[in-house]
Amino acid sequence: MSDKKTVTSRRGMLKGAAVAAGAMSVPMIATAQTTSLRFQSTWPSKDIFHEYAQDFAKKVNDMAGGKLKIEVLPSGSVVPAFQLLEAVAKGTLDGGHGVVAYHYGKNSALALWGSGPAYGMDPNMVLAWHNYGGGKALLEEIYTSLNLDVTSFLYGPMPTQPLGWFKKPVAKVADMKGLKFRTVGLAVDVFTEMGTAVNPLPGGEIVPALDRGLIDAAEFNNASSDRLLGFPDVVKNCMLQSFHQSGEQFEILFNKTKLNALPAELKSIVDYAVQAASADMSWKAIQRNSQDYIELKKQGVKFYKTPDAILRAQLEAWDKTIAKKATDNPIFQKVLDSQKAFAQRAGQWQNDYLVDFKMAYNHYFAKGAKKS
Fold it and tell me: Euclidean distance between the first and final Cα of the chain, in Å?
């Protein structure tokens, strides 16, 4: 064979190999695997909380580059809101978005991630305790004891929740007695201790119950959620400030088996998406809640500060509640001890270091303040 023919022959072989490789690359791209996970939130689709769940999913989906896709359905799409934990554990759902207090009936200690004054910790400090002070291991211990195949990520520090919406404003502790009131978690026990008749309704059922007179008052969460759920359409009085849920946060649940089956890269994306979503949610909450607070006032809602006497009565009722629960439930006391140790140290630091921001606000915006 001549050199010319040899060169031509080699060129033909290389060309053929290139064509073959190109042909092979098309189906490889077309058949790239996408892991799809079906989530459900415990919130109606119109609630800002459902939006937070979608925000988290979008962060995961964007970072995963097509390798992982989370779809979030609203409450009730597959199971009722309060059945989310079981559905995720069994694999009926791959994951979900809610709050730990909704699982209160399975172990009362679960409500300590949200209900009550948390020894004076604000929501972000409760998350600090969870992630760095031992809370995460305790939550895993509880879920393991219940044989629940789940992995939990806590995130999203919620602003302090109002005492609630009342047909008539309350001015003293005695006004709480006999009220038919909606709340959840250990707040059920706290308000029961204060003499109210508690009904722990899911979020979507609260406003209809108020409208029909089945309950006299109710708490949910924040200005944006309360407005979208329709509270101002049926009640015009809202009492601000409370200790019943002053340090709550959200929970993102995964079926543990399905999460563990993901490659390390995708599990890292989930972890960092939780952290990013936590910061983003807290910023969005300030923006939206402050806007909706103004809109609620425009709708004729009257806001009242919860009297200090009622706040003190909440703390006293909380002390009685946790004393009873700790007697019957060893892990309950274990969680309390962990929170208390962290709160005593971190709370002293925060209270000593933080300036009184209200002083600066009043300097610029209070009536008669000197305008710059």
Answer: 94
Residue ranges in the chain modelled with pLDDT below 50: 1-11, 13-31, 372
Sign of CA dihedral 8, 10, 12, 14: negative
Are 235 and 113 spatial neighbours (Cβ–Cβ below 8 Å)? Answer: no
CATH code for the structural domain at 164-245+301-345: 3.40.190.10
Q: Which amino acid is at 99?
A: V
Q: Taking Cα atoms as reference points, which of 258, 260, 206 lies closest to residue 234?
A: 206
Contact partners, residue 20, CB within 8 Å, separation at least 6: none
Cα angle 337, 343, 348 (rounded to 5 degrees) comes to 140
Cα gap 104→231, rounded to integer Å: 25
Q: Would you kindly state where each structural domain of the chain is located, as residue ranges?
A: 35-158+247-288, 164-245+301-345
d(CA 192, CA 178): 9
366 vs 64: CA distance, rounded Å: 48
Among 240, 222, 243, 242, CA closest to 231:
222
Contact yes or no for 111/101 (Cβ under 8 A): yes
Tokens of 139: 């939550």
Choose among 37, 34, 27, 36: nearest CA to 67.
34
d(CA 251, CA 49): 11
Strand, coil or helix: 372: coil
pLDDT confidence of residue 370: 57
Residue of 193, 40, 179 whose CA lies nearest to 102: 40
The CATH code belonging to domain 35-158+247-288 is 3.40.190.170
pTM: 0.87
Query: What are φ and ψ of residue 229, in 5° steps?
Result: -75, -15
Radius of gyration, alpha carbons of the chain: 26
Q: What is the pLDDT of residues 19-68, one digit of tens each?
A: 444 444 444 333 468 999 999 999 989 889 999 999 999 999 999 999 99
